[in-house]
Amino acid sequence: MKIHLTSIALIATAVLTGPAVVMAQAPAAAAPVVIDAAVTDNIFQLYEGVVTKVDKKNRTIYFKNAEGESKFVAGPEIKSLDQIKKGDRLNVSYELAVAIELIKTKSDGIRSKVETSTEAISKAGEKPTRTISNTTTIIADIVGVDRAKKLVSVKGPSGKVTVVTVKNAQLLADVNVGEQVKVVYFDAMAASITAPKKK
After folding, report:
1. How far apart are the first and last CA of the chain?
2. Rounded to whole angstroms, how far apart are CA atoms 94 and 58?
3. What's the sign of the alpha-carbon dihedral 13, 16, 19, 23?
4. Could you say which residues of the chain have pLDDT below 70?
5. Distance from C-alpha of 63 to C-alpha of 11, rounded to nearest angstrom
6. From CA 137, how far away is CA 113, in angstroms rounded?
7. Which of 12, 20, 35, 42 is deepest in the core (most CB within 10 A)?
8. Pairwise CA distance, residues 119 & 134, whole Å
9. What is the pTM of this model?
């Protein structure tokens, strides 16, 4: 049987063994009044497979699902290789959430972008799990409003103007040029190896 290192296996390798980068910048600004918010949250199942073999000598783990068999080499960061057994399940998921808050305040000319990254890993003696999450918060100026077409043009900290489509036209009733919008992007990549469910 031909075994290949799939892109999802590469993602799992990166999540389970890769280093995390932490960035944080705290802006000094008064909390604005939120008059409306729109939120989307989606979770995507990227890979799900069963452990078919664990080669402890070469630190190689083999997985299999409907698409075939894959493998990846566990780096030294995975301290609990002994906890991984044949029949365990690998799950890799991706979550993307976007929150848009309309802020009822006059623009003070200050636009900002703040990025933070955090990680959570399994404890010693537990099966390997790791979650890496990133949050980006952008404060942008509203530079154009087209209520007929349900469009809002915003200028971010880089000076680039982005046109955003608003599904609910009622949200634009009290939105005007010169006010600001806060956009929060959240994404997380999680990989975990769990024991099979008991029948």
Report:
1. 29
2. 29
3. positive
4. 1-40, 98-110, 167, 199
5. 14
6. 6
7. 12
8. 9
9. 0.57
